[in-house]
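Students often ask what a holo structure prediction actually looks like on paper. The answer is less mysterious than it sounds. You provide the chain, you provide the ligand, and the output is a string of discrete structure tokens encoding the 3D arrangement of the protein together with adenosine-5'-triphosphate.
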Amino acid sequence: MTTIALKSLHYCWPGASTPILDIASFDLQSREKVMLRGPSGSGKSTLLSAIAGVIEVPQSSVHVAGTDIGGLSGRDRDRFRVDHLGLIFQVFNLLPWLSAVENVTLPCRFSARRRDKVGGDPTKAAERLLGELGLTDVNLLNGPASALSIGQQQRVAAARALIGSPEVVLADEPTSALDEEAKGAFVELLLKECNAASSSLLFVSHDRTLEKHFDRTVELNMLNGGTI
Ligand SMILES: Nc1ncnc2c1ncn2[C@@H]1O[C@H](COP(=O)(O)OP(=O)(O)OP(=O)(O)O)[C@@H](O)[C@H]1O
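The corresponding structure tokens follow.
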């Protein structure tokens, strides 16, 4: 089954003279784990924004988890995003005044679907996920997120993306702040948890050493119809 289906995807940032995205077609299958590579400025983050419905891409076809994103109002896109997508960014965007566990349960506060998929107490689910990702210290789990190291914040961001088993996890260079050993270990954990949640993963990275962990690698320059 296809989880992401893009057809004739074009996008030009306001004021730019050429489109940054010009993609004839791209599919991501259910449970597939794909690495997206491309030079800096080639449009990788822009592509994730189009898939997440953060930017509008008129006259393009973007289907995610069976829904035509372009057919949704802004409000429905926000609802769709929290119901069906897990997002991990380069900057982890944790709420510093909440604890690690409270950050992880946030999607369940905003999405009944994610809460139902947890099928029990979201706090317990958050603690389980954080434990799987190697965070078990109760003081860390219940203390403010502002007290966490970069590597710990990244695990919290991953658990927040995965809670309630979204169909798709989009990760934008989440390993860029980590050393070589920590990068590989984090990707392995992320893939294991995506498998457990039956989530597809589109993972942006420049790092060729991580390629071996994924089902396939897609070069944005090859997808993009000669815009670069
Ligand atoms: N909000 C925005 N407004 C206008 N132009 C933008 C905006 N965001 C990105 N761009 C432009 O779109 C192009 C692609 O940026 P994008 O961040 O998608 O690339 P990237 O491949 O993710 O880069 P990097 O690997 O450096 O993160 C760049 O030229 C950038 O300046």
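The chain has one domain: 2-223.
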